[in-house]
Structures are given as C-alpha cells and as structure tokens.
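Researcher: I've been going back and forth with a colleague about how Chloride channel protein might be arranged in three dimensions. Neither of us has a model we trust, so I'd like an independent prediction. The organism is Penstemon smallii, in case that matters for your notes. Sequence below.
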Amino acid sequence: MDEKSSYCERGGVVVDIEENDKSVLMMVESNASSFSEREAFIREPLLNLKSRVVNTSSQIAIVGAKVYPIESLDYEIIENELIKQDWRSRKRVEIYQYIVLKWTLALLIGLLTGFVGFFNNIAVENIAGFKLLLTSNLMLHQKHFQAFAVFAGSNMILATCAAALCAFIAPAAAGSGIPEVKAYLNGVDAHSILAPSTLFVKIFGSIFGVSAGFVVGKEGPMVHTGSCIANLLGQGGSRKYHLTWKCLRYFKNDRDRRDLITCGAAAGVAAAFRAPVGGVLFALEEAASWWRSALLWRTFFTTAVVAVVLRALIQVCRSDICGLFGQGGLIMFDVNSTIPTYNTPDLLAVILIGVLGGLLGSLYNYLVDKVLRTYTIINEKGPAFKILLVITISLLTSCCAYGLPWFAQCIPCPTGSEEKCPTQGRAGNYKIFQCQPGHYNDLASLFLNTNDDAIRNLFSSKNINEFRISTLFIFFIGIYSLGIITYGIAVPSGLFIPVILAGSSYGRLVGRLLGSLSSGLDVGLFSLLGAASFLGGTMRMTVSLCVILLELTDNLLMLPLMMLVLLISKSVADSFNKGVYDQIVKMKGLPYMEIHAEPYMRHLVAGDVCSGPLNTLSSVEKVGNIFHALQMTRHNGFPVIDEPPFVDAPELCGLVLRSHLLVLLKGKKFTKNRELFGSEILRIFHAFDFAKAGSGKGLKVEDLELSEEEMEMYVDLHPITNTSPYTVVETMSLAKAAVLFRELGLRHLCVVPKTPGRPPIVGILTRHDFMPEHVLGLYPQFINHNYS
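Model: Here is an independent structure prediction for Chloride channel protein. You can compare it with whatever you and your colleague have in mind.
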C-alpha cells in the first residue's frame, strides 16, 4: 500500500479488501457516503462500480479485472550519509563500468525486443496463414460449411488459449499495456504490470490473439513487451525466479529502471512498425513523463539496434526458411511510387478527412469507455467468465468475417493486372471465395486476410476500382464495431491496427466518392490519410504518429498532408474527450499526474490539503517506536526531527524511507543509550544493502524479530536519512506544488511552516494529495465551478 494522504489522517475507518488471500488496508473517510456521489461526478473510474469499495484514497487501482494496492516510485536522488560514502569510495573503473553497463543494457534491450518482435510476426504469419490457406482450399472444393467450421474452430481454439493465459497466469497482460507503461513512467507501480509472467503471457497471448482473427494488433503489446524486457534486465534478474546478476547492482533503483523502461517502450514501437525514429518520438510524446538529452541518445541507440536486427532477420527469411512468412507484417506498406500532387479541392478533401477522423475517433473512445465498463462487470466474476466472453467475441468475429462476404457481388478480374487474379494462396488482393473462375470477392479480400495484408490491400493504388464503395462502407462499419467490442476482453490486444484498418477504409471510401474532384491524390493516398486521421482522433498523438506512418509507407512526400490531417483530427477530437490511453488510465484508477495542474488548484495552497497528526521520528529513536510506526501505518516515508540534546531547538533533519528502516532494524545495530553512533552503521552497512528489491518482495514488518530488550534500545537514523528532501512552504499554491512534484518525479514533498516557533514540518504531500477525488472531496465547492 502506498503512502496515505500526506500522512494527514482525518479520522476514518479501515476497510478490508480481499485480494489473493491478502488484506489490503486503506483509509476511507468517515463521510464516504456523501463523498461517493460527488466523486462519481468528478471522476468515474471502474473502481466506482457497486461491487467495489469507493476509491477515496487513490491508492488502489484495477489491474486485469481485480483491485490491487498502488505504490509510488522513488525517482528522487536520495542523499544520505551512506550513499554519499558510497559515491566518495567509487573508483574511476566503477564509474566507467556503470556507463558501459547502461549502454550494454540498451543494446540487450534492442536485441531481445527485435528478436521477440520478429518471432511474433513469424508465428502470426504462419499460424494465421495456415488457417486461412486451409479455409481457402476447402472453399475451392465447395465445402463451405467445413470451411466455416475450420475457420471458426481454429479461431476459437486460439482465442481460448490466449484467454486462458491471461485469466490464470497474468491478468495484467490483458489489453495493450500502453496505459500501464505510461503510468509506470509517471511514477505509478501497479501489481505485476512488468513481471516475468506478464512478459511470457504478453508474447504468446498476443500471438494467439492476433492469429485468432480478432480485430486487434500486436503493436500495443509490443510496447508492453519491450518494457517488461527492460525491467527484467534492469533489476538484475528476478529473485522470485532465482535469476539474478550481481554486476547489475548499480541499477537497483527506480531512476535507472525508468530510463531503461523508456528505452524498452521505444524499442517495442520500433519492433512493431520497423519505425526506429517513430519509436523514439512515441516514447517522448506519449509514454515518458520525464526526458533529457542523454536518454534521447540511449533510446535512439536502442531503436537503431532493433532496426538492424529486424533487417538482418528479414534477409534470412528471404530464402524461404520461415514458412509462410514472406510478405509479412514487418514489410513496409508500399502506398505509391508516383509523386503526389494536390490542389485546392484536394486540400478541402484532406480537411474533410481530418474532421471525420476527429469525430469518429472521439466517438470510438466514448464507445470503448462504455464497453470496458461493461466487460469489467463480467471479467471480475472469475476466469471462467473471462474465457466465455472471449469465446463469444471470437464466434461473433468469425461469423462476420466469413458471413459478410457472402452478401458481396463477385467482380470480374481486372485485365492486365500484375497480380494473379483470383489469388492463389492465403494472401493477395483478389480472393475468389464463392465466385466463379475469373472473378473475385472484394469483401473477402479484406475480411479473410491477416490484418497486415488487409491494410496493404487498402493502401494499394494499382487498381482504383478494386474495392467497391459498398464494400468499403460495410468493411468500415464491421471493423469499427468489432474493434470496439473486442478491446477489453482478456487477451493482449493493441489498438493501432484496428484504428489503421478502420481509418484506411473510410479514407479510401472518401477517395472513391471524391475521385472526380481530385486530380493528384489517388485512393491509396486517401487511405493513408484516413488512417492518419483516425489515429489522431483516437490516440491524440501528432509528431510520433506522423513519423511512424511515414516510416511504414516510405513516402516522405506525404509529410505536409499528413501533418495537416493529424492536427485537424486531434483538434476536433479534443473538443469532445481525451485520448483513448488517457481514458483507460483514468478508468483503471491509476493516479496519473498530468503535466498541467487543475485550474482550481490555483485557489488552494499546499497547507490546505495537509493537516495533522503527523508521524515523525527522532534522529536517534527508540527501536520500539520505529517498529510501532511501521506496524501501525502504511507510510513509505517518515520525517526525521533533530531534537535536544543534539541541537538547541527542534529542526527538520530529513526524510527516511520505510524500506531503509526495515533493513536497519533487520541488521539490529542498536545501542542501549540515546547517543550518536552513525559511524558504526556506516562501517557495517553498504549502500547496496538498501537498494530496492526487484521482482522478489523486499522486507516486511512481519520479517522482523525483535525481543523486548531490543525494543527498548535506540538506533541512530542519521546515516540513512535523506538530508536534502524537496520542501515547499505551506503558502505555496497547490498548482505550483503539483507542477514541481511531477517535473521532479517526487514521491514525497515536505511542507514546512512559513512562520517560526512552530514544529519544523507541517506535513508531507504525496501523489494522492494532488488527485481530484481527494482535493474536491475536501473542498466540494470547487466541483461546479469553472476556473480559467
């Protein structure tokens, strides 16, 4: 459990939440009944469902379909005597070793993520390709019912495997994982979001889910996968799984792990799209909350390694040793080789596509929000209900993909086409389906294909009339609807590919309708612009999406139009709601610190959300008092006060972390008299003894075994006390304090009095104190007021 409301307890009750046979303690304010109605108006996370406890503490969140406690991360540089001694004692060779290790880990992250991305593509192309090839062969022999049975049965088996992995092994692996990675890089650590089990399920669950024909992508899960790989390497392995490396002890802190996970997220995008520059910009624009030039270099190096690995592996597969993988998802989408020219009518059409993307994108986010809330009610009933929901969506998807093409009319094959018509094999633009020889079914060419091949067909400019207007409309409605109802089921699922599919279909539709007015833009380019507009309308990214699409299509000449359509779609969609990832972060109850403070915070000061009683420790404290404070509270930081006889008047010595106190008490270096003996502690302990644990759990209060005699002894806290914590005066505006808290990546912010003669510290602000549900719960008069 994370730290409580600035350690300013206002009189509450303790509520037990049963979760995996553990009891999670949380403070629920005594006026919770009246506050719950106000909170539902302020912020409507999934935690507000009637089956759950009202989240008045911002310290629990949804992971998978269950409620887990939330921890904040320590991104602040701690300066205590023990760490300073370690810094002074480090030799030049150790400094070089640390620098080399940072770049070595970046190299390993790039290598492993590249291999995993390539493995995902090979697996999907072969599994889905074999399924589609078998279905096509049965259709050629007029065995229509057998073909549907094979198609739907294969999809259901693959979907069940993906759902079972998520339901029983790693519930945190469901969904894209981008919201969780984004929250982690903001300073929020949720249960098992980057665990080795999550990595395993993310890889194989994504393969099964995409191969099952769901309208999902493997791109979002690749971001989560890259982050899991970086986390596993950065913590020196896992104690839980007995995989540790002592040489990586320098990285046993949240600050270095944050940088590595940022590299992992960028590598995931680079591996999914073969877009190394786009991966860097994605991490900068969407994922990371803190950035600096040194991190830019390492992130770029990581994505460059991914690009080299993918290119080398693709060259190997050109010798036909990778099964059905040949023109798979890692091959760029070739839009057009001609130079695009455009005039005023073309620009008007582009503006129309941008507006449509913004409107459809905001509606998409709204409907995804509603579907996620509905699915959560089902998923929280247990693994069996999760799997049943996945099977239901799988059967519905199979019926749509196989059934809708029967309503499409057959089209004669074009004359003089470079590609064979009808298509032989699993991929291609001209699926024969139920048509007579010399004809093809254009709707089957979109539905009965892998998602990557469907996008490639829509981006094609070789035959303007390849897909009829009615086909494009039906495909758009189908993909748009299936994408909405599929996201939220218990399988790893990305949003990039469904959004690109839907956007490219209505973009090509607009191109067909306005074909007579456009002289320089063909339907393939309209399809690309439609994909860009829908991406901008749903995800609200601009620069990174622009570069990713340009790297995907290898068409730099489309840059001005791409920029225009992204800016328009984002501006239109922002008028209605937030981006899809921001909505999911909010729904899950993750306490994400926004880059800008809420307007009403300018009317409050730091002292307004911080009041006593405050749990403080003396610089030389009795062991029993420390043990009692650790046992009776869930605070992760305690103010340390220097008191007489060590100083003339009480003054703030600094801040000590809960984890450091546990290590110190476990070492049992106490004295019978209340005296300074920090030098003895500095001699016995090493800074690495206080390093943060990895996947294995660190020390708990229950692990301490202290006798009655030891309880009456004293311990000197000076060596482990952070003597330079960030502090603000109590009269600082809450908005200013919120910006400071986020920009510095803090976990604790000490509030000190403005006037002398008072206790040296007023309280401690934590992430929870800046959350709207907490602030507006204390000051409900700001709920119905708009401040500019």
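Researcher: What would you highlight for our discussion?
Model: I'd start with this: DSSP finds 26 helices and 18 strands in the chain. After that, consider the following. The first strand starts at residue 12 and ends at 19.
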